[in-house]
Amino acid sequence: MKIYTRTGDEGKTGVIGGRVDKDDIRVEAYGTVDEVNAFVGEAIMRMDPRLHKDLIGALTEIQHELFDAGGDLAQAGKTRKYKVNDAMTRRLEKWIDQYDKECPSLGQFILPGGTPVASALHICRGLTRRAERLVVRLCREQDTNNEVRRYLNRLSDFFFVAARTANVRSHVKDVEYKRNRPGF
């Protein structure tokens, strides 16, 4: 497989069903999902397998699903069976509930950070929120898999809880946001 093709030199790129401008909302959406995936790899790389074996497994599964989400979002004008489905979103909810049990309850908003692992997961959360905003716009303007929007919404919650779990497992307290009254 050749790495460069020169077909994008004029500002167009291929999607499933044709070619679009590289700054098309569809390309922005799946491109941002790809950024999330890269940062998930960064988070995994920072993890100690003895401490985070379960999180590494979950995040690796999420990386595969993010490729599926990108593929679903890359479909323009051609309908095929989508890969991201409700079962994936429900599984994220189970993981959120599972990992949240390890964390102390929240009474305030927290600042992103703590351990290097938690910091990387907070970056994943922020990028996922951006991807979600782009997918919301894409769903409004064009035909696409609406389940990707729901999945990304839940995924950002998963990253939040996973970041807190990483801090707890390393005995690092979350830093509460102090300039506001209790948030919850």
Automatic annotation (TrEMBL):
Catalytic activities: 2 cob(II)yrinate a,c diamide + reduced [electron-transfer flavoprotein] + 2 ATP = 2 adenosylcob(III)yrinate a,c-diamide + 2 triphosphate + oxidized [electron-transfer flavoprotein] + 3 H(+); 2 cob(II)alamin + reduced [electron-transfer flavoprotein] + 2 ATP = 2 adenosylcob(III)alamin + 2 triphosphate + oxidized [electron-transfer flavoprotein] + 3 H(+)
Keyword line: ATP-binding, Cobalamin biosynthesis, Nucleotide-binding, Transferase
EC identifiers of the protein: 2.5.1.17
UniProt-listed GO biological process terms: cobalamin biosynthetic process
Major enzyme class: transferase
InterPro entries cross-referenced by the UniProt entry: CblAdoTrfase-like, CblAdoTrfase-like_sf, PduO-typ
Pathway: Cofactor biosynthesis; adenosylcobalamin biosynthesis; adenosylcobalamin from cob(II)yrinate a,c-diamide: step 2/7
Keyword ATP-binding: yes
Entry's Gene Ontology molecular function annotations: ATP binding; corrinoid adenosyltransferase activity
Cobalamin adenosyltransferase-like domain sequence ranges: 3-166
Family, similarity comment: Belongs to the Cob(I)alamin adenosyltransferase family.
Assembly: Homotrimer.
Protein name, as recorded: Corrinoid adenosyltransferase
